[in-house]
Every structure is written in C-alpha cells, then in structure tokens.
Amino acid sequence: MATTLPKVDAVVVGLGWTGGIMAAELAKAGLKVVGLERGEARNTEDYLKVHDEYRYAVRYELMQNLSKETITIRNHRKMPALPMRQLGSFLLGNGLGGSGTHWNGHSWIFLPYDFKIKTMTDEKYGPNKLSKDYLLQDWGVTYEELEPYFYKYEQTLGISGEDTNPFWGKRTNPFPTPPMKKTPILKKFESATQKLGYHPFMLPSANLSEPYTNPDGAAINSCQYCGFCERFGCEYGAKSSPEITVIPTAEKTNNFEMRFRANVVEVIKNGNKVSGVKYLDTLSGEEFIQEAEVVVLASYVMNNAKLLMVSNIGEQYNPDTGKGTLGKNYCYQILPGVNGYFDEQMNTFMGAGALGMTIDDFNGDSFDHSDLDFIHGASLSITQTGVRPIETNPIQRDTPTWGAEFKKNSIYNYTRTLGIGGQGASMPHKENFLSLDSKYKDAYGLPLLQMTYNFTDQDKALHKYLTEISANIMKEMGAKTVEGKNPITDYDIVGYQTTHNTGGTIMGASPDNSVVNTYLQHWDAENLFVVGAGNFPHNGGYNPTGTVGALAYKSAEGIIKYSKTGGSLV
Residue ranges of the Glucose-methanol-choline oxidoreductase C-terminal domain (predicted)? Predict the structure, then answer.
C-alpha cells in the first residue's frame, strides 16, 4: 500500500539539467518543489579522486545500472528486440546531475533552420526532397522566439565562446566568458580550414576559460585542462553541471526538497489533469504517492517516454497507420569523420571536454543540397579532449589488433594522431520509434522501453559526403596517412557513438503531430510538462544540451504562469 504524501506545488522527476533548471526557476518563483532522483546524491567533493579511467570510463561508475533497468533494441519490426546488457552506443546518466555531470561540455544552440526545417526545405528544394517515409516537421517555435532563453541558459552556465560563426543565428548578447585556449593542435585545424575557404571558430564550452559567478550567485571555476571530462565529474568545479549551478540555486530558496533513490514508476492521471506520481524507495522497496499541482517529467529521453507509456498518457505511435505521437520521431546522430596520422608529436594527452574548433560550412542548410540526396549536415570539429591511455590505442587499419606490432604502433601513434569528427543531423523516419516491450520487464515489474531504430539512406549519404570533406581537411593539415570512417550500414549498439538521443515526446503547434505544445505542456493533461531532448522533432548537427536548456527555461516560465492562471498555455 502506497503512502500518500502532502501535496506540493510541483514535483520534478529527474535532477539533471532540465530538472535542475525547473527546480531553480520554480522555487525562485515561490513554488514548493520536490525533486525525485532515482540515483544518489553527489557533488564536487565526491570527485577529488576522479582520475580513474577504469572506474569511470570503462566500468561506468556514474551511469545507469542495466541490471535494474535497460531497454530492448531492434533494427526493424521483423527483428526480435533484445535487452541492452552492457552500455555501449550511448551512456545513460544516473544520480544528481544526470548526464550533466559526465558530459564533455559542448554547448550548442540549434540553427534557425532547425526550427523551421520542413517549411524551409520545402520552399528551397520542393516537398519531395525526401520521401514521405521521413516525418519532417517544424517545431512550432522559432529561433528568434527562443533566443532570450538560449542566453539565459548560457548565463547560468557561464559558457565560454566567441561569436564569429557566420552560419548560426543572430545573437543579442556576447558569450558570458571568453573562448578557451587556442592550442597548436587547434591552430593546425584553423589554418587548414581557412586555406580551404571555410570559417573556423572556437567551440562553445561549458569548461570555463576563467572563473565566473552566474546571475544566481553560483561560482564556477576555470578549467585546468586535465583531460578528465566525458564520463567523469569535475574535481575542480570548473565544468558547469547541475550540482554546482541550478541545484544550489534551488536549495537557497528553502522551497526545494530533494529525495534520492526515488524511482518514479507511474504518473497518476485523473481526467484532463495529473494528480502526482508514484515512486519506489529503491533501498526499502516502500511505495509513495507524491501529490502535486504540477508534474514535470525531466528525466532522460527514454525514461520520459516510458513513464508516459506505462501511465497510459497519450496515444502510442503506430507506424502502420501513422496515427499517434508518443514514441514517434526517435532520432540519434551520425558521426562522419577521419583519423590523421602524423610524424610530429603533439600534446594530445592534455585537453578538456569542449576544447575544440569547428566549422559550420556543412551544417544545416549552409551549403546547397540541390544535387545531393540528403538534407542538413554536421558541425565538423577537431577537439583536444585529452586522450587517456586505457581506451586510446590509435593504430592504422592494416595493423594487427594484438601482439608486438599493435603495441609498437599504439605507443608511437598515441601523441601523433588527430581526429576530425562531425555531429551529423538525424532526420525522423516512420520506422524509427519508441514503444513498450511486450516480453521483457525491469526490476520493478514495468515493461522495458523498446527502441526500433536503423540508419536510413539519408544517414548513409550524409555520412559519406561529410567523411570526404573531413578527409580533405585532414590532408590539408599535413597528416601522412588519412583514414576515413567506414561507411555506415545497420545500427549497432556495440561501441560508444553519442548520447544525443532525441524524440519520442516531440513538441509542436498541434496535438495532431506532437505530444506537447511549445511550452512542453502535455496536450492531454494541462498540468503535466515533459521536458528534454525527447521534445526535438529531429536531431540537429550539434550536441542537444543548449537547446534543451533553452526549452526548459521557456517551459519553466510557462509553468509559473500556469500556477497562477491554469489552462492551456497556447
């Protein structure tokens, strides 16, 4: 029997970036907020001995325990879906800060083109540029409408960058802090891309270039370039993360309470509203119902979608009929790129998660796609993240993967190998979607989420084209050997690719083609808000975090308004 707890103004499920932003903004506005996090509490002091590559990068100390909950994956509907037993393709965060603790810190804002992609593609290339199997749609909101929220996000994190990219949207304000150091490796990329007529600029970074205090009074330190960012918490408090920014801001108000080891298993719906959530204490097994005037789902893409599905809120997408929106438009990313092998030694072991240079000459619609069999593109970057010895063994393709020659080449190439990588945009396809698995269940008795996903012809064409562009840049940089990534075939969960999963709870201007409106308010339950990268109708050529943060700030503004007036916000 579940214990019903006193009603609060808002309950927030998940305490990563979106949950932390929500908690801070709602608590500052005077709302009483409870945050439920199924992982553990943690903070900077927990990372003082974090330079342990085996514990954190290999054994995934900060990630979700797949023995308790995982997802099943298949490439197509005729294929049996099997549980993911080991993390690989993507890494699901767990605990306070979520993926915002172990991220690299790349902090992008999607292009104006992304938000009106259907309209702009049709106007320029005609409505048949992609086949009808691709479920392209506008987001219901424009870049210009979101730009103030982008800057609010950047101010909170203190993002380091420079406004010299001619292809992204117009910025009203400069970056809060200057760009990171332009190292010799980055200068090599800068020189090569400029010679080729491209437009390099420093990558926007949440590894801060200098000490910074944000508008809420949270202090963030300057990056030490230690090379332990992705998969690690920052021991210096220099990588902006929820536990050093928005969470302390929420706590200062005395309107915010955090509960850990609280795994939400159901959103309770009554009519056109929800009344709260049911959660389990993962240690004691006790059940609780937390009643609330507003429920905010702010956990990861997969879990937000799963909670709606198991709670029977919304209509499940049906690929046969095209009806339903829940689970629709799941997208990933494509990673074109090359490795270059040099004779000269470089300090590749030093760096930071978001230390890099980028060109956007082949992102969005920055180049003509008239004679190409794909749309969109990728940001192409060189990053100096600090290669670590256990997982970094760069060898040419003709080198054996074991033995004396492998060891010799791996050691030689360790400081002589550079990579150029692209964050390739992913377009929604009718056969790529999320649903509930009919066979497998998690440790709490709920069906596992099922992912049906495969790379499309659009993906393969984009990957091939941009790998060739990357190879030309690497040759211009002076590499003696250049090896492009192999052409992509079927999607495989083995091997890390990116944690930039999007879709499943998409936003839009109408309930006919979206789960939530432009304030991320659920169409079927006016006091339920679903916030995260699941709201993206497609995936862009950047990391999603900055766009997620902006949407969270806009949604928080809507919730505060809703708390006073009620009703639909659009």
Answer: 428-552
pTM: 0.97
Distance (Å, rounded) from C-alpha 279 to C-alpha 266?
A: 7
CA distance 386 to 10: 41
For residue 82, give both structure tokens: 């099997």
DSSP SS3 for 305: helix
248: part of which helix (H) or strand (E)? Answer: helix 246-252
Domains along the chain with CATH numbers? 3-565 (3.50.50.60)
Buried b (16+ CB within 10 A) or exposed e, 473-488: bbbbbebeebbbbeeb
| 3-class secondary-structure state, position 225 | coil
258 alpha carbon, distance to own chain's centre: 23
Tokens 């709606």 sit on residue = 308
Q: What are phi and psi of 211, to 5 degrees?
A: -60, 145
66's tokens: 């797949």
Q: For every one of its 570 residues, what pLDDT tens digit does the chain have, with 9 covering 90 and above?
A: 899 999 999 999 999 999 999 999 999 999 999 999 999 999 999 998 889 999 999 999 999 999 999 999 999 999 999 999 999 999 999 999 999 999 999 999 999 999 999 999 999 999 999 999 999 999 999 999 999 999 999 999 999 999 999 999 999 999 999 999 999 999 999 999 999 999 999 999 999 999 999 999 999 999 999 999 999 999 999 999 999 999 999 999 999 999 999 999 999 999 999 999 999 999 999 999 999 999 999 999 999 999 999 999 999 999 999 999 999 999 999 999 999 999 999 999 999 999 999 999 999 999 999 999 999 999 999 999 999 989 899 999 999 999 999 999 999 999 999 999 999 999 999 999 999 999 999 999 999 999 999 999 999 999 999 999 999 999 999 999 999 999 999 999 999 999 999 999 999 999 999 999 999 999 999 999 999 999 999 999 999 999 999 999 999 999 999 999 999 999
Residues catalogued as catalytic: 500
Alpha helices in 171-280 (DSSP H): 184-195, 246-252
Supply φ then ψ for residue 522, to 5 degrees: -65, 135
Per-residue H/E/C for 107-169 = CCCCCHHHHCHHHHHHHHHCCCCCCCCECCCCCCCCHHHHHHHHHHHHHHHCCECCCCCCCCC
Torsion of CA 157, 162, 165, 170, to 10 degrees: 60
The amino acid occupying position 368 is D
Among 428, 564, 392, 477, which residue's Cα sits nearest to residue 31?
564
CB 313 within 8 Å of CB 526: no
Q: Which two tokens stand for residue 131?
A: 């086949």
Distances (CA, A) of 260 to 10, 83, 281, 282, 318: 17, 26, 8, 9, 36
| Calpha distance 353→207 (Å, rounded) | 7
How is residue 116 written in tokens? Answer: 């009106």
Give residue for tokens 């699901």. Answer: 92
